[in-house]
Backbone:
């Protein structure tokens, strides 16, 4: 009866806001279908008790304090509403494991929230939070914490003691530094630090040896990386350090032997280390908008590479080893200073797209005609003779040529 009373109160709130019509009822799901509810508004019932509540994008402005009458709640999803405060009674839900508060207007969280010791997932992305209490450290079972797109300039020291966290999103805040104690988060699989104001990184990031999926460092103010940063991150698969002011990479980047994607565009990189060639599982390498005048010969060791994007650099030549990239499908060389291509490019027999726009070519090597899978060739904004035979033969074969 207590739960029915709460649901009736919620129904009246939804009807008043127009989220439910007067004759509608709150949708009920009687078995867990996996992930979060497909309904904007709905409840999941198990054994005659409400175990999950979803109120997504429903213009909700207030959560009734009677929420704690739903004593079996394991999951609450309040994403995309207009909440400015939460009731203290939210902390009286001892079974709560997942709490989604993304996209509201919260400026603070109730202190009672940090007594929810069963909580494993806490998302408050896209609110107006500027501070968290040290009592955050009581959430010792937390595995997934999203604090992104708020107003944090600092974070409580207790955060770095939450050793069970596997996914941590701190993106889109105003952080200028991180403590060395971030290295305590030894179970991290994914870390997002993008879109802050970081000018340096702590050496202890290199202790996060379980980082497996993503490390995002984009859109900060980094001019260099710690020499030993990547020394032990052998499991990492995706690394993004775009939109910074990096001028060089440490040799330790070659230790990232499980890396699949590396994104470094919009920096000031003038050279690349030979150790880059040790990333033999790499499939995508994005280096656009840097100041590269050359590439290391070792780039030819990236035998699984499928995409190589080098537009808007200062390349005057390419290493012959580039022809060893037999899996390459996309090669983007737009807006460099190239006058010729190495003959070895004829061996790129999986290449489908070649962009040579805005270079300094006056002729094209006949070897381009041997690229049997080429579907698109762009040679605009070069000074190439009007009708070279190689272009005509490509067009006759069905390749689209832009010139």
Residues:
């Amino acid at each position: 009866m207590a739960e029915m009373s709460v649901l009736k109160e919620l129904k009246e709130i939804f009807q008043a806001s127009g989220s439910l019509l007067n004759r509608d009822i709150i949708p009920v799901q009687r078995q867990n279908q996996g992930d979060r509810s497909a309904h904007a508004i709905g409840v999941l019932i198990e054994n005659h008790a409400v175990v999950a509540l979803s109120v997504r994008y429903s213009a909700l402005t207030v959560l009734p304090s009677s929420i704690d009458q739903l004593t079996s709640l394991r999951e609450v999803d309040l994403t995309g509403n207009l909440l400015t405060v939460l009731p203290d009674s939210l902390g009286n839900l001892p079974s709560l494991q997942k709490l989604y508060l993304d996209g509201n207007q919260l400026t603070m969280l109730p202190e009672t929230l940090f007594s929810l010791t069963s909580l494993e997932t806490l998302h408050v992305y896209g609110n107006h939070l500027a501070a968290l209490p040290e009592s955050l450290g009581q959430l010792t079972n937390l595995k997934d914490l999203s604090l992104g797109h708020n107003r944090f300039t600092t974070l409580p020291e207790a955060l770095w003691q939450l050793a069970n966290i596997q996914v941590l999103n701190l993106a889109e805040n105003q952080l200028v530094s991180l403590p060395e104690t971030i290295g305590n988060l030894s179970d991290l699989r994914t870390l997002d630090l993008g879109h802050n104001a970081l000018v340096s990184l702590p050496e202890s990031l290199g202790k996060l040896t379980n980082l497996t999926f993503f490390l995002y460092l984009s859109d900060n103010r980094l001019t260099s990386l710690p020499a030993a940063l990547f020394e032990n991150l052998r499991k990492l698969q995706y690394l993004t350090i775009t939109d910074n002011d990096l001028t060089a990479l440490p040799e330790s980047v070659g230790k990232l032997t499980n890396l699949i994607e590396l994104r470094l565009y919009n920096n000031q990189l003038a050279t690349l280390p030979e150790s880059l060639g040790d990333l033999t599982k790499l499939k995508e390498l994005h280096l656009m908008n840097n100041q590269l005048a050359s590439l290391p010969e070792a780039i030819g060791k990236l035998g699984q590479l499928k995409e190589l994007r080098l537009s808007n650099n200062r390349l005057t030549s390419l290493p012959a080893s580039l022809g060893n990239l037999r899996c390459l499908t996309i090669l983007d060389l737009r807006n460099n200073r190239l006058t010729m291509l190495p003959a070895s490019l004829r061996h790129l027999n999986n290449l489908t797209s070649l962009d040579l726009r805005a270079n300094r070519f006056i002729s094209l090597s006949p070897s381009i005609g041997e690229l049997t899978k080429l579907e698109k060739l762009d040679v605009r904004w070069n000074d190439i003779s009007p009708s070279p035979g190689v272009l005509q033969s490509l067009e006759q074969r069905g390749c689209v040529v832009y010139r």
